[in-house]
Write a structure and sequence with these properties.
Number of domains: 1
Protein name: Major facilitator superfamily (MFS) profile domain-containing protein
Number of strands: 0
Oligomer: single chain
Low-confidence stretches: none
Structural class: mainly alpha
InterPro entries: MFS_dom (IPR020846)
Distance between the termini: 27 Å
Number of helices: 5
GO cellular component, one term: membrane
Shape: elongated
Helix content: over 70%
Strand content: under 5%
Membrane topology: Multi-pass membrane protein
GO molecular function, one term: transmembrane transporter activity
Amino acid sequence: MNIVITKLMFKNGTRINQYLFAVLITIPLLNFGMVQGWLSPMISVLQSSEGPSPDPYTSSDISWMTSVTYITAIIFGAPMGHLTDRYGRKVMTLVTTLSLIV
């Protein structure tokens, strides 16, 4: 069974390749949505005294937590553009997807 899947995966234009890369491409989008979306319903929990941290989070702390993803996008935007031009879109998409999986 494993040999059959391996043979099908490396042929050009197979359906397994399309499904595999469709799943891999959606992982960064799913991860970004989870990172941005989890905070909205959790703000009241994080600011309460029964929250997961010993001290309740302040509005400033929550503001920093939401802005970190955008700050990293500003920092890594130019290098990722250069690396994408150098190595190609598919390779860099796989690299970023693998980093999100790990």
